[in-house]
Write a structure and sequence with these properties.
Elements lengths: L2 E2 L17 E2 L49 E7 L5 H23 L5 H6 L2 H17 L1 E18 L2 E17 L5 E3 L8 E9 L5 E9 L7
């Protein structure tokens, strides 16, 4: 088996893109715990119930933390979803989720402001553990990753599910000290499918709170 970087998306999440380290190769990879509702269609998603104290509908103020991926890593995004300001804000936060995780990877700093801006709860704990493992291994990433946002389904006024594909076929894993390639790019690699949940926090920011992935997903081929 070979080691591959994934984010998330980064997405941890993806929170990166996520660029999560895991074993690749065999086609028997399965997802242990699917996130309830994360792969439902828009038709299956119930209409939000009205509440006495509706969540804020205005987008967050333009105080999002700057993210620096450095000169050697680039994330490219495409969205297949539309649905108004809430969905647009979630798509923007999913991009921030993945970029935040990648920034933490290339900077080797898991306390960067963007990481906790876009990720919370178990998703944040999981992402920090993965980052710490990468730091210990002495690995970083370079190249170009392609993301396609497949679905965003509003569950209610403060929560939604999402899925997106990540194509890592143009990314490599580097030794952070020597700059040598530890794992080369895999030009024929089938993209991974990431899916999970986001919640709207009290500051009006959609944060990834849970995520998982299906490696080499047929939906992303």
């Amino acid at each position: 088996m070979t080691r591959r970087n994934r984010i998330a998306y980064a997405a941890a999440l993806a929170a990166g893109a996520l660029l999560l380290t895991s074993c690749g190769g065999g086609g028997d990879d399965t997802v242990d715990d699917e996130i309830a509702g994360a792969q439902t269609t828009a038709e299956d998603t119930p209409e939000p119930e009205p509440s006495e104290d509706p969540a804020p509908t205005e987008p967050a103020d333009d105080d999002r933390p700057e993210i620096d991926l450095g000169p050697d890593l680039e994330n490219v995004y495409e969205s297949e979803v539309s649905g108004g300001p809430e969905v647009d804000a979630i798509v923007e936060s999913l991009q921030g989720f993945n970029d935040a995780v990648d920034e933490a990877i290339v900077s080797r700093e898991n306390d960067r402001p963007a990481l906790r801006y876009y990720i919370a709860g178990e998703a944040l704990d999981r992402t920090v553990r993965i980052l710490d493992s990468m730091y210990e291994d002495g690995h970083t990433s370079a190249g170009k990753a392609h993301y396609v946002i497949r679905e965003v389904n509003l569950v209610d006024e403060t929560s939604a599910t999402f899925s997106y594909c990540r194509d890592y076929s143009e990314t490599v894993t580097l030794d952070v000290n020597t700059g040598e390639i530890v794992e080369p790019a895999e030009p024929g690699a089938v993209p991974d499918l990431f899916f999970g949940r986001v919640k709207l926090n009290t500051d009006g920011v959609w944060q990834a709170v849970d995520y998982d992935l299906e490696p080499n997903a047929a939906e992303c081929a």
